[in-house]
Amino acid sequence: MDGKMQLLAAGNLLEAHTWKGMLESSGIAVELKGEALLGGVGELPTGIQNVELWVSQPDYQVAKKQMDLLNAEQPQWKCVSCHEANESSFELCWNCSAEKSEKYS
Ligand SMILES: [Zn+2]
């Protein structure tokens, strides 16, 4: 049995692709599932997208550990304009495109 397991649900497509890229650079195959993938990007307002990251069962524990490491290494920053949490790799807020403020990083 080589089932798939849901690793996490991202709040938006950009976040999902960021995680996917980081995991794939570690050799873990990631599959994205979610309503946001059905239509073209831009048809859905940002903020209500729900994208899930799935990995194969043997990779799950490694992927989970990888996520914890990435989270520890890269604390999120909070947008000063809309107060959304952003990944540290983002230079602009995913939600309102405001610039990252070092004060809050
Ligand atoms: Zn913002």
Automatic annotation (TrEMBL):
Residues 73-102 form the RanBP2-type domain. PROSITE patterns: ZF_RANBP2_1, ZF_RANBP2_2. The keyword Zinc applies. InterPro entries: DUF2007, Znf_RanBP2. Keywords: Metal-binding, Zinc, Zinc-finger. It comes from the Bacteria. Pfam families: DUF2007. This is DUF2007 domain-containing protein.
